[in-house]
């Protein structure tokens, strides 16, 4: 495998970490307990910064600020146009600070710095602009009532929102949640993942510079079972929007049900199929399949972790995949030549390696990879298992790392049946030149997004979310905007009607 040394010189000077405290009501403050926790650089296991460890009392303060800003502050009362203008200013500031923000995500999550600078951060700004443009177009409908009544609906902001976000895309997740809820006129408490708190704190700082009023965006850094759980069970939060594991999604829903029945949307795990048909171009198919599993080191809930290849093209695809995986460059995420950085932390690193060992024990054929890369940090080789059986653990459970399970199939019907036989339903990929196959299979797959001859084709206008145990509710697109609103019906009798 071609590799770059993990110790190669970063092309960008690693920044001083400026913001490490909670952001509540427009101010950076220590946690009430005074406690902090360490965030770790996954390139080498060293401490990057000590960050305030928020808990229930801090969440209470943040919710109080958000509630005050919602009930009495200007944000929900401003015109959508005025909110949109401030959001555009926010987007400009995000773009201006792209380098430092990308560096923070690299230090926290091991994400490729080049990708952060050119994709994650600019697309965060695009997300803000998209929803800024939508902020003055949120309206209800005039109803065609069946009696002598005049009726219409209003779409109102849902209130105070709790956003609990994961560590794999700290920037994209922040804006996927914050963008539409800001546009809708909500106020919010954001809890970034404990592994990746730094960029969210920087985004909080930029929101203040942009002129977003105090109390609208609050950021509480801390752990899931403490700060996260306090959000899920808070009596004064109107909605919780969560992205993370299916196990924690279940806890969030339970806490919402047992507290104030707040609305919930969940974007959870996946075990997404990529189906390659006999007529596909071998090179295109191998590229898509490899990208589907190594992009962001496999730390993406829509990763194409189950690859089904039709028997006629199977051997050619396997050969090509092996060749491409060998040339995949694992290395320092600050180095522009690297294509894959380290896994986010020791826990994920060990979990992925134990799945790899399980695959070996279960008798799958290890085509390439199969162990850590280097001897420092949490780097893992792109790993491909072939001859995988549907009932093997590696084919069923979400590994959340660069580990592919490749399987052979004969007929279209068989591919659909096997692709759907999972508890998850987040994404799917199809590789074929045959339009009839593409249309038939895409309709038959139970997944929130189907990519035909592409993969990870995200767009801010394209709703994103799951079927089955991958959750419910949609991020992105206008769908996301609507989930942060409530619909109110207003009815009045027409003149001379009998009331
Ligand atoms: P992963 O397993 O991929 O680390 P998690 O689902 O554990 O993902 O974490 C996603 C987010 O959920 C993080 O911000 C984490 O702190 C939070 N979280 C974890 N446990 C809980 C919990 N019991 N209640 C609320 N939030 C939680």
TrEMBL record:
<dbReference type="InterPro" id="IPR016163">
    <property type="entry name" value="Ald_DH_C"/>
</dbReference>
<feature type="domain" description="Aldehyde dehydrogenase">
    <location>
        <begin position="29"/>
        <end position="490"/>
    </location>
</feature>
<dbReference type="Pfam" id="PF00171">
    <property type="entry name" value="Aldedh"/>
</dbReference>
<dbReference type="InterPro" id="IPR016162">
    <property type="entry name" value="Ald_DH_N"/>
</dbReference>
<comment type="similarity">
    <text>Belongs to the aldehyde dehydrogenase family.</text>
</comment>
<keyword id="KW-0520">NAD</keyword>
<feature type="active site">
    <location>
        <position position="267"/>
    </location>
</feature>
<dbReference type="InterPro" id="IPR015590">
    <property type="entry name" value="Aldehyde_DH_dom"/>
</dbReference>
<dbReference type="GO" id="GO:0004029">
    <property type="term" value="F:aldehyde dehydrogenase (NAD+) activity"/>
</dbReference>
<comment type="subunit">
    <text>Homotetramer.</text>
</comment>
<keyword id="KW-0560">Oxidoreductase</keyword>
<dbReference type="InterPro" id="IPR029510">
    <property type="entry name" value="Ald_DH_CS_GLU"/>
</dbReference>
<protein>
    <recommendedName>
        <fullName>Aldehyde dehydrogenase 1</fullName>
    </recommendedName>
</protein>
<dbReference type="InterPro" id="IPR016161">
    <property type="entry name" value="Ald_DH/histidinol_DH"/>
</dbReference>
